[in-house]
Amino acid sequence: MKAICISGSRNPNGQTASAAKAIIDGLSAEGVQCEQFFLPAMRIERCRQCDERGWGICRTEGKCVIEDDFAELADRIRQADVVVFANPVYFADLSESLRAFLDRLRRVTRHDDGKTGIVETPTVGVCVAGGGGGGAPFCCMSLERVLATCGFDVLDMIAVRRQNLQAKLARLELAGQSLAEDAGK
Q1: For residues 124-137, b (16+ Cβ closer than 10 Å) or e, as one string?
Q2: Where are the alpha helices (DSSP H) in 13-91?
Q3: Which residues pair with 64 in a beta bridge?
Q4: Mean pLDDT in the chain?
Q5: Into how many domains does the chain fold?
Q6: Nearest CA-CA partner of 40 in 5, 82, 8
Q7: What is the pLDDT of residues 63-116, one digit of tens each?
Q8: What is the pLDDT of residue 149?
Q9: In which domain, by residue range, is 16 found?
Q10: CATH number reported for the structural domain that contains residue 132 in this entry
Q11: In the predicted structure, residue 184 carries a pLDDT above the cut 80
Q12: What crossing angle do the helices spanning 15-29 and 165-184 adopt, rounded to 10°?
């Protein structure tokens, strides 16, 4: 079984990375091979809204015309059995890098070809807020809405704040184990 973790965080050693690592540790404990991608280190452009109606071949062919790392990462998702989305919370919402990626993913999944390998893929999201941490639940709602629009089977959304990160690491590891078990059924 294979898993992919997509992080909207630039810091591979920060709070979001710690949360993602706990989920990955849980998946690994169940024998799942995990691959992680940090979106800010990749070349992912924002949607161009190609035609005058704001669409393009995403709607008619299930792919995007922009030549960057998007298509390869979307293919990696399609090959995975489970997907984890880890996001640092900014302004009670998704990071700019995760937003850019998911905006394009939800557009290509409007077409049947774009849905292939994504629909019903078990998924967990974790949103980690620094500062006061109050924006994590709002970010989880935003992430869940976009992932559901893409067709993922969203099993859990976990709100974390810097004040409770250490206490939640065990729960995050259990979420990874549960994700592996649900995908194996």
Answers
A1: bbbbbbbeebebbb
A2: 15-29, 57-61, 70-79
A3: none
A4: 94
A5: 1
A6: 8
A7: 999 999 999 999 999 999 999 999 999 999 999 999 999 999 999 999 999 899
A8: 96
A9: 2-184
A10: 3.40.50.360
A11: no
A12: 40
